[in-house]
């Protein structure tokens, strides 16, 4: 039962990563971010595949990586770090049975063949593959192979588990089952876990905490619920399916304050004074159609509750299909939009 603590700086040409991350025993920390944010670079440092420009990686009392003033003081090799990895493609040996694959870790640390077999069978039962121990990977489904890979990673009793989009190749149902299994096993074994993902479902169903990376920097972090209901960064807002508009606080003729955003977007900011800049967030389902600012429909797509419109100013609007039909909405249509003040979260920008 050990914690992970890492402070990592990497310089790769123009790209700079500066991240501090920690995971407690049994905790799953989700790392989210757009392409190129630095997620894989961070994982590579934690796994020991990349020596950072500066920083430290500690697991419990052990220092796995330490680089200061361009001196590498410690760089434990990947196979000696006690760090397990589960990626998109199951890491399994094709020529070994499921049992032999899972027994590999215990065998490598000196466990007898007989004992490693028992441990492997226990793990295969824990991941729901009790009857399939003798099968080779090519006689298993993708989801089953990923279960073998999970059992294999955990049978080695790693201090830290790194998950790199482990459900990305699986169908929706299998992914949901695997998420549940990962959560259960991480909790049971109290393994500190870092989960890199693009998928908001992973964040909300698995992560205890999320860290959002952008351009190599942590732009926000916290409990998934908090981060996704009140996102600070446009990437997180898009992930959460929430509108985020940045603009200037202005006085309206009726004396109230509103945020004036790009493309004529006007959003009420009741509690604010005019002057200065702010950002507002609001749900696409909170936007009403009929009066307010003038916008153009840019595209329409099926939404989770009806039809989702993207409008000029990058504002998303969710409407029931009947309303879309009634109003005859189409790409290029002009609409008037408004958001009731009570649905708007305002964050002044300094
Ligand atoms: N071997 C390398 N040499 C130089 N630069 C690299 C190397 N690998 C990645 N980079 C750069 O480092 C930055 C971060 O890349 P990284 O792969 O860590 O991002 P990511 O968040 O994992 O992206 P994705 O979601 O697309 O996998 C990018 O600008 C990338 O071009």
UniProtKB/TrEMBL annotation:
Keywords: ATP-binding, Cell inner membrane, Cell membrane, Membrane, Nucleotide-binding, Translocase, Transport
GO molecular function annotation: ATP binding; ATP hydrolysis activity
KW Phosphoprotein (keyword) present: no
Annotated protein name in UniProt: ABC transporter ATP-binding protein
Superkingdom as given in the UniProt entry: Bacteria
Boundaries of every ABC transporter domain copy: 1-240
Pfam family, one: ABC_tran
Gene3D superfamilies, alphabetized: P-loop containing nucleotide triphosphate hydrolases (3.40.50.300)
């Amino acid at each position: 039962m050990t914690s992970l603590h890492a402070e990592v700086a990497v310089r790769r040409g123009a790209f700079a990563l500066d991240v501090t991350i920690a995971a407690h025993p049994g905790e799953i920390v989700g790392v989210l971010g757009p392409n190129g944010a630095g997620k894989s670079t961070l994982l590579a440092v934690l796994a020991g595949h990349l020596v950072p420009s500066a920083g430290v990686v500690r697991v419990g009392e052990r220092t796995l990586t330490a680089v200061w003033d361009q001196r590498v003081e410690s760089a434990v090799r990947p196979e000696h770090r006690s760090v397990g990895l589960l990626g998109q493609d199951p890491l399994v040996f094709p020529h070994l049975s499921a049992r032999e694959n899972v027994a590999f870790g215990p065998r490598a640390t000196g466990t007898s063949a007989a004992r490693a077999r028992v441990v492997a069978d226990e793990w295969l039962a824990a991941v729901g593959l009790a009857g399939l121990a003798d099968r080779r990977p090519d006689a298993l489904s993708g989801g089953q192979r990923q279960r073998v890979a999970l059992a294999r990673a955990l049978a080695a009793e790693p201090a830290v588990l790194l998950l790199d989009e482990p459900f990305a190749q699986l169908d929706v149902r299998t992914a949901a089952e695997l998420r549940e299994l990962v959560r259960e096993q991480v909790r049971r074994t109290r393994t500190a876990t870092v989960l890199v993902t693009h998928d908001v479902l992973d964040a909300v169903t698995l992560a205890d905490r999320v860290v959002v990376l952008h351009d190599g920097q942590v732009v926000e972090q916290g409990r998934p619920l908090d981060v996704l209901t009140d996102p600070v960064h446009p990437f997180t807002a898009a992930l959460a399916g929430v509108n985020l508009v940045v603009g200037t606080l202005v006085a309206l003729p009726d004396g109230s304050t509103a945020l004036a955003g790009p493309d004529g977007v006007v959003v009420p900011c009741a509690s604010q004074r005019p002057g200065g800049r702010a950002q507002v967030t609001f749900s696409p389902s909170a936007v009403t159609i009929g009066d307010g600012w003038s916008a153009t429909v840019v595209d329409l797509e099926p939404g989770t509750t009806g039809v989702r419109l993207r409008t000029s100013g990058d504002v998303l609007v969710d409407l029931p299909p009947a309303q879309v039909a009634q109003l005859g909405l189409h790409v290029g249509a002009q609409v008037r939009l408004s958001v009731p003040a009570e649905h708007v979260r305002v964050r002044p920008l300094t």
